[in-house]
Amino acid sequence: MISRIITGFLIAPLTVPISFSIVGFLARGNFESHTFIGSFLAVGIYAYIFSLVLGIPTLLILMKMNKLQLIHFIIAGLLLSVTPCLFFYFVFGLVKINFYIQCVISTLLSVVVFWTIMELGLIERSPSRDFLLKGL
């Protein structure tokens, strides 16, 4: 289970910059690689920071309370998604409702990806991983 949790913390935060990049592409209507890479890295750094600072304590609390169903993760993610919004509001003075909505949606997407990896063990059950382990 520990390997699934670590994998979840490595993969799930990537959904945030991916979702922001997709929305940015759809809003602009074109793809500019320098803008994409810069925004992907900037959003990705914040996603990983918030994931570690907020996600690890939240996971420990949920595990201690034995609340590991998807609905509990979604509720916790919904409550925690307010934190980045407040951070960007107070630190950068960012007041854009569409940004806040995207923060909440991408955070919830990240939570669902994390829960899927952790709970269903998709990484441990993949045929390619089994193939690699057979050779050892």
Can you walk through the features of this model?
By secondary structure, the protein is mainly α. 81% of the residues lie in helices and 0% in strands. The protein has 7 helices and no strands. It has helices at 2-11, 15-28, 33-64, 70-80, 82-92, 97-120, 127-134. α1 (2-11) runs antiparallel to α6 (97-120), α2 (15-28) packs antiparallel against α6 and α4 runs antiparallel to α6.
Strand content: under 5%
Count of helices? 7
Largest sheet: none
Give the N-terminus to C-terminus distance in angstroms: 21 Å
Structural class by secondary-structure content: mainly alpha
Order of helices and strands: HHHHHHH
The whole-angstrom Rg is 17 Å
Low-pLDDT segments, ≥5 res? 122-126, 129-136
- Percent of residues in helical segments? over 70%
What is the typical, i.e. mean, pLDDT? 82
Give the overall shape, derived from the CA principal axes: globular
Oligomer: single chain
Say how many strands there are: 0
Draw up the topology in text.
Blueprint: H1 2-11, H2 15-28, H3 33-64, H4 70-80, H5 82-92, H6 97-120, H7 127-134
Helix pairs in contact: 1-6, 2-3, 2-6, 4-6
